């Protein structure tokens, strides 16, 4: 759950001034980024046009990649502050290690949820013996100010609640959907759900009008509120919706992301979510000096070095550029 750019661009986001208070259909295209040695991701958030959806602040989609003869995902130990990471797979496995001592293999449609709080380090890798294909999403949730210094911890939930309708099975990853609640710990009103649609499905999913939403396409042919959404793209939907029309031209996989608009303004750089430039500078220094983040034991290799900071101070701004 990492940003491995060696020249990361500061993302200055948060605040409600740029939240779209009415339903919209804003299609977001990804940019391609290398993650580790052999995995390329499609980055949807932060985006040139939009930086957050509720508390969701970072979204990568990757695969399906044929890694039968490849090492697969190999992400060395790296740090995080001020956020939660969400690992979500459709195919393959990812082995998670972190500085609290967690060691967990995450499999398809199981929730790996890491709360960095004040500071944590972790690594991610495909097991040595792994499935042929790797396909999933990596996401961050920004922590509100009152909870961003909590003790770091990791959760793994192999059984999650579902919401069903003809042609639809929705697995509730985080938060609440249509009366079903995920066991994952959350700190803001939020929802994340995996939507599995069968060919020919034509359904309406109930939504909270006070939430803003987006839908990420993972696979297949589907339209969201009449807009075709291709795999690896995301449709921002704004607020003010009570339901969402979904249609599938083939078996399809989507992710629904939503939540109450995030009121606080943030500074996000590399793998840190903070409130000020000074906090980012201190976190980078702590990581490079071996302070605060602890040790990830068992990974075969050294930790990532932090990139150089940009020349000027990072300043908080709005949610869109």
TrEMBL record:
Keywords: Iron, Metal-binding. Residues 301-321 are annotated as: Disordered. Residues 41-141 form the Pirin N-terminal domain. Its cofactor is Fe cation. Residues 193-290 form the Pirin C-terminal domain. One of its GO terms (molecular function) is metal ion binding. Transmembrane segments: none annotated. InterPro entries: Pirin, Pirin_C_dom, Pirin_N_dom, RmlC-like_jellyroll, RmlC_Cupin_sf. It holds the Pfam family Pirin_C. Binds 1 Fe cation per subunit. Fe cation binds at residues 78, 80, 122, 124. The keyword Cell cycle does not apply. Belongs to the pirin family. This is Pirin. The lineage of its organism: Bacteria, Bacillati, Actinomycetota, Actinomycetes, Kitasatosporales.
């Amino acid at each position: 759950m990492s940003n491995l750019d060696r020249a990361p661009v500061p993302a200055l986001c948060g605040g409600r001034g740029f939240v779209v208070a009415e339903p919209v259909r804003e299609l977001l295209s990804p940019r391609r980024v290398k993650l580790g040695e052999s995995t390329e991701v499609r980055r949807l958030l932060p985006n040139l046009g939009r930086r957050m959806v509720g508390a969701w602040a970072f979204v990568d989609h990757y695969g399906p990649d044929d890694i039968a003869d490849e090492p697969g995902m190999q992400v060395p130990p790296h740090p995080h502050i001020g956020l939660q990471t969400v690992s979500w797979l459709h195919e393959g496995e990812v082995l998670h290690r972190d500085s609290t001592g967690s060691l967990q293999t995450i499999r398809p449609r199981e929730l790996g949820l890491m709360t960095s709080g004040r500071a944590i380090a972790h690594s991610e890798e495909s097991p040595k013996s792994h499935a042929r294909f790797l396909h999933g999403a990596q996401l961050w949730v920004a922590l509100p100010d009152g909870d961003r210094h909590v003790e770091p911890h990791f959760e793994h939930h192999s059984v999650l609640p579902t919401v069903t309708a003809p042609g639809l099975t929705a697995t509730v990853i985080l938060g609440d959907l249509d009366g079903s609640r995920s066991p994952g710990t959350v700190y803001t009103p939020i929802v994340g759900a995996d939507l599995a649609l069968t060919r020919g499905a034509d359904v309406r999913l109930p939504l909270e009008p006070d939430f803003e939403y987006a839908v990420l396409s993972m696979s297949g042919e589907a339209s969201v509120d009449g807009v075709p959404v291709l795999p690896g793209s995301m449709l921002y939907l704004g607020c003010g919706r009570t339901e969402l029309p979904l249609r599938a031209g083939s078996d399809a996989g989507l992710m629904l992301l939503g939540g109450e608009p995030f009121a606080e303004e943030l500074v996000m750089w590399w793998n840190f979510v903070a409130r000020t430039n000074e906090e980012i500078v201190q976190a980078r220094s702590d990581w490079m000096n071996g302070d605060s983040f602890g040790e990830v034991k068992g990974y075969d290799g050294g930790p990532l070095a932090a990139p150089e900071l940009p020349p000027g101070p990072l300043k908080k701004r709005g949610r869109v550029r």
